[in-house]
User: Fold Urease accessory protein UreD from Ruegeria meonggei.
Amino acid sequence: MSLISRCAITHHASITLRPDASPPRAKGAVRLNAKPLGNKSVLGGFRQSGSFRCLFPRSTEPGLEAVLLNTAGGITGGDVFRFNGHAAQGTTLSLTTQACERAYKAQPGPSGHVTNDLSVETGSRLNWLPQETILFNGSALDRQLRIDMAPGATLLLVEPLVFGRAAMGETLTSIRLRDRIEIRREGAPVFLDATQYSGDLHTHLAKPHIADGAGAMALVVFVSQTAEAHLDPIRLLLPDTAGATLIHDDMLAIRLLAENSFALRKTLLPVLRRLNNETLPRCWTI
Assistant:
């Protein structure tokens, strides 16, 4: 190619972004079903797409374990992730994440959206055990977790949240957060927890009557006919910054505040092990 031709190509090639151009966004979806096979729970249906993946570690346990993985490395404004999981009658389905999820700084505009829809049939058990979600300063996260339960189904749910990277001296002076957890039984709501905040979360959490400077928190919900029997033993495991109560005869709710993510996990691990037959997904212990 001649020098003149190369100059012409360079002259006519536009590499500047249009004023209305937007950066690429991460999108992903996973759908899976657990079905019984003999005395085990196995994969009944599975589909994944985009930046959302699912791994199935080998296990000697009769239940099915699935590990969710965000290959985009985190969530920022405009990202969209969806998960649908179903535990058929007579199955045990445990869902966790490969690592902590991260909500990164977002540009002004849309939030990152995460929607999780789960269903549990009679005689089945669902363990929703994601690792911590870490909020970065400037993050914008809109997250929903919806669970439909049939009578006689069992549920163990945890949602841990970390407010910034304490080891790096990060404080959350500007974030947008909308988080909603809803549990229904036969279509009727039995548990609803909603959080919405925009602005300086660090100053808000520093108030003694709000969180007294806590750097992490978690919600645990256990729905089972054995829930009441766990109440007193669980209370013995909790620090002064946590509490446990029976919302219904078969529903135990636990709320925890901690100085940082390390202290939060130190309390969470024995609680989750007790409520999950002394086992946890390996991701939680690596």
Q: What stands out?
A: Residues 1-10 have pLDDT under 50 and may be disordered.
